[in-house]
Structure formats: structure tokens, C-alpha cells
Amino acid sequence: MTDTIVALATAQGISAIAVIRLSGKDSIQIVQRCFKGKKLEDQASHTIHFGTIMNGDRIVDEVLISLFKEPNSFTKENSVEISCHGSPVIVKEIIKVLLKGGARLAEPGEFTKRAFVNGRFDLAQAEAVADLINAETDNARQAALNQMRGGFSKEIERLRQELIHFASLIELELDFGEEDVEFAKRDDLRDLILKIQSYLHLLIESFDQGNVIKNGVPTVIAGKPNAGKSTLLNTLLNEERAIVSEIAGTTRDVIEDEMVLGGINFRFIDTAGLRETQDVIEKIGVERTHEQMKKASLIIYMIDLANANLEDIESEEKHLVQLGIPFIKVGNKIDKANPQLVSLLKDKGFIFISAAAKTNIQDLKDKILSHFHIRTVKTGDVLVTNLRHYQNLQQTYDALTRVLDGMEQGITGDFLAMDIRQSLHYLGEITGQITTDDLLDNIFSKFCIGK
Ligand SMILES: Nc1nc2c(ncn2[C@@H]2O[C@H](COP(=O)(O)OP(=O)(O)OP(=O)(O)O)[C@@H](O)[C@H]2O)c(=O)[nH]1
Ligand SMILES: [Mg+2]
Q1: What's the CA gap between 39 and 23, in Å, rounded?
Q2: Which residue is closest in CA terms to ligand 1's atom 1?
Q3: Ligand 1 mean position to 104 CA, how many Å?
Q4: Ligand 1 close to Cβ of residue 332 (< 6 A)
Q5: Contacts of 446 (CB under 8 A, 6+ apart)
Q6: Closest-CA residue to 293 (of 321, 332, 315, 333)
């Protein structure tokens, strides 16, 4: 990893300032080759220098150069940040000159990957860098920040140490195998595992919250054509996002947009009305509705209070129950509702609204939020937000259950030791004590270029 990488670190497009970033042993020399100003190598780390970037004899731009000398940089390598004017033409030309000078384009996440490989932080912390950049709510930002600052990693390390202690007791026994000694009382070992498991369980459970905080909640609005689904989407978003008309079957495709409610990022998904249809395109739309419903975290099931029948409602509800996804029952068009229908539905858990007149929308929002008991994330809270971590914690837990079962059945120490090593392996993968190229590629390829 001696080569020097370069990438635009700020967003693509026109901006007041753009920052181009380099990292690698030769980054300072490479910039020097196209820089007219002070001799950069002679300057101290963490200093800023004005000058011009040249393409041959031609001035490309006036820039500021920030210098970071190893190991005092994000990547722990020599690094340079060039702040230039934020024109895509300038950025492109400066990067071209730097490539000519010996740098190569960075791969996605390569700066952060180098920071990890050079020991700036562990893998979970590196992943938190991406989460921090992508955070769309204050809760998501705080959760990512806590993880980046090492709160989660510390907990994993504590668990690992407990397990290592446990493993050493078992392995000691193995060394003395023939003498048939027991250094560790089986009851004590069992208690230790149960303690570790109960802690693992807390972390695993926190993923319910962590996942909602990090990834938001896909919420599907579904129901018969003309129920007012698109009207509700527009009302929730406060924007004419979807076409509304009195023609049944107006929406044929999936329309979605995001909105933050109570600190959670909701993705509201408007769908084609559910009905049997001969129209080829509408039919595809209805299939998509079913797919979206299966993937949703919450379904807003909507009926038209002016025009619905109880039999249909009951059969649709049965279908929703079978899906097993939480749903909220909404009766729309309360402003022109059929009174008999309203009295029939009164005690059946419906919330009555008018999407068009914006009646009871706050009640609906409260009801939506009541499905997600999110507490505000505070500094230092440890929360599992990452699916990979969640899966590894689960695998650790399962391996420990096998250890417990094994002890119950009186199997020998060497078999116990195998499952304990497995559990250590899964924990080690979370923080990156154990890695493979595939694992790293998989993680860092999801980053943006320049990070
Ligand atoms: N009176 C009244 N009319 C409403 C209300 N909400 C929606 N509508 C009307 O109902 C009709 C259908 O509304 P849409 O929002 O297009 O219904 P949809 O469920 O998206 O229909 P499809 O896209 O065809 O599945 C339109 O004429 C809306 O103006 C309401 O609360 N009260
Ligand atoms: Mg619609």
C-alpha cells in the first residue's frame, strides 16, 4: 500500500469550495510537482499554504493546501487536502494533473480502509464513519457518532475478554487431559456463559431500535383504488407528490418519499390500488403493491368510508394478519362517510381521517409513531445498528448455546473449546481482529469514493 490515492472528498457538482484529497507516502511530492508556492516538504504538519496548481505553464486554479504528515493524519499516512474553487471543470483538471504526477484514483472507502488497516480504529468504528455521513436524523447521527468513538467496540472487547478467560480455563484442562482434572467448576463456567449470553441478548435486542434509527421505516400505504392513498401521501409530505384523481386506478407504479417524524426517517410508499384487473399495466402495479407490502415495516391499510363493504374489509384484514407485518387501519373520507359503515367500524380499531381535508392527521402520525418506541439516542449509548454486527452477535450467542448444551451432555473439553473458539471468531469479525479480503471489500465498497 505504498501508492498514493486521490479523490474528490466533497460532493459532485458546483459549490463554493471543493476539497480534493490525497493519501500515501508520496502525496506531498506529487502535489509539489504541480504546485507553485512554498516548498511543501519543508513545511510543518497541520499547516495551510496558498499557491497555484499548474498544468504545465497554465494556471488551473488558486488553491489552499492543507498538509498532514504521517502518522498524524486520518489514514496515518502523508496526506494532502487541496481546497480549490468548486467547479467540476477545475476539479477534473486538478485530479488529472495529480494522476499524471503519480497518484491513482481512490476506490470507494479506500481512505477509511487505510485508516483501519493502519490501526486508526477498528472495523466497527470504520463502518460508523459511513453511517455518520449517511445519517438522516439526529438520532442516526448520534448513534453513528457513539459507534465511531468506540463505545460499541469497547463492549465487544469486554465480551471477548470474558470469553478468552473462559476459553483459557477450558484449554488448561485440555493440557492436563489425561490426569482428568477440572480447573473450572462446570457450574461456574455455566454461570459465566449465561452472564455473557444475557449481555449479548441486550445488544441483539437493541437492533430493533438501532435498525429503525439507522435505516428508517418503509411504510406502505395500501388499499382499494380511490381510497385516497395518494392524497394521504401528499398530505403527509405536504407536497403534491402523487397524482390524485377520482378515476379508480390512477396510481400504477410505486411512488415513495421520505419524511422525518419523531426523530425517525419514514419512507412512505404509495401504491397501486388493490383489485382484480384486466389492464396489463395496472396488473403489474398491483403485483408491485404486494411485493412492497411484504417488504414493509409498517402498512397503512386504507378504506374509503363513503364506499366500502364490510365483507371486503374483513377478508383484506385476514390477508394482512397472514402477512405478519404491523398495520394500522385507516378509514378515509370521514367528511363524506356512510354513517352506517362508520358505526359498524367504530369498535374495530380504525382511525378515521380525511386525507383531503387534513382531519385527524396528527392522530394518525401519533399512531404510526406508537409502533416504534424510540428513545432519544444520547452520548455514550450503545446500540446495534448494523445488520452485519447483529448477525455476528446472534452467531456468537448460538455458539455459546452449543457450549451450554455440550456441558449438559457432558461432552469433552476439546469439543467445548471448538464452540468457544467459534464464538470468539464471530465476535472478532465485528471489530476486525479477524478479517478476510472479502469481508473488507464488502464493507468498504459500500462507501462513497473520497471517503
Ligand atoms: N371527500 C373526500 N375525498 C377524498 C379524500 N381523500 C381523497 N379523496 C378523493 O378521492 C379520490 C381518489 O383519491 P386518490 O388519492 O387518487 O386515491 P388512491 O387511493 O390513490 O387511488 P388509486 O391511485 O386509484 O388507487 C380523489 O378524487 C380525491 O380527491 C377525503 O378525505 N375526502
Ligand atoms: Mg393513487
Answers
A1: 18
A2: 333
A3: 55
A4: yes
A5: 108, 109, 130
A6: 321
Distance CA 73, CA 57 (A): 32
- Judge whether 219 and 268 are in contact, CB under 8 Å: yes
Ligand 1 pocket check: which of 221, 229, 231, 275 to mutate, most ligand atoms within 8 Å of Cβ? 231
- Proximal ligand: closest to the CA of 285: 1
Domain ranges in the chain with CATH number 1.20.120.430: 129-211+381-444
pLDDT digits 0-9 by tens, 271-304 = 999 998 889 999 999 999 999 999 999 999 999 9
Nearest atom (ligand 1) to Cα of 231: 15
- CA separation, residue 206 to residues 23, 132, 143, 404 (Å): 37, 19, 12, 24
Residue whose CA lies nearest to ligand 1 atom number 3: 333
Residue 48 in contact with residue 64, Cβ under 8 Å? yes
Distance between CA atoms of residues 255 and 372, nearest Å: 23
Cα radius of gyration (the chain): 29
Q: d(Cα 352, Cα 342) in Å, to the nearest integer? A: 9
Residues of the chain with pLDDT under 70: 1, 176-184
Residue nearest to atom 14 of ligand 1 (CA): 228
For ligand 1, whether the C-beta of 230 sits within 6 Å is: yes
CATH topology of domain 5-121: Gyrase A; domain 2 (3.30.1360)
Would you call 104 helix, strand, or coil by DSSP? strand
Pocket test for ligand 1, best of 244, 254, 307, 364 (most atoms within 8 A of CB): 244
* Residues pairing with 267 in the sheet: 218, 258
Ligand 1 atom with the shortest distance to the CA of 244: 16
Q: 129-211+381-444 domain in CATH 1.10.10.10?
A: no
pLDDT tens for 192-250 read 899 999 999 999 999 999 999 998 999 999 999 999 999 999 999 999 999 999 999 99
* Mean per-residue pLDDT of the chain: 93
Question: Would you state the cell numbers that stand for residue 144, as one nine-digit string?
Answer: 453513528
Q: Cell numbers 448477525 correspond to what residue? A: 391
**pTM for this prediction:** 0.81
Residues of the chain with CATH 3.30.1360.120: 5-121
According to CATH, the topology of domain 217-370 is Rossmann fold (3.40.50)
Residue span(s) of the chain under CATH 3.40.50.300 come to 217-370
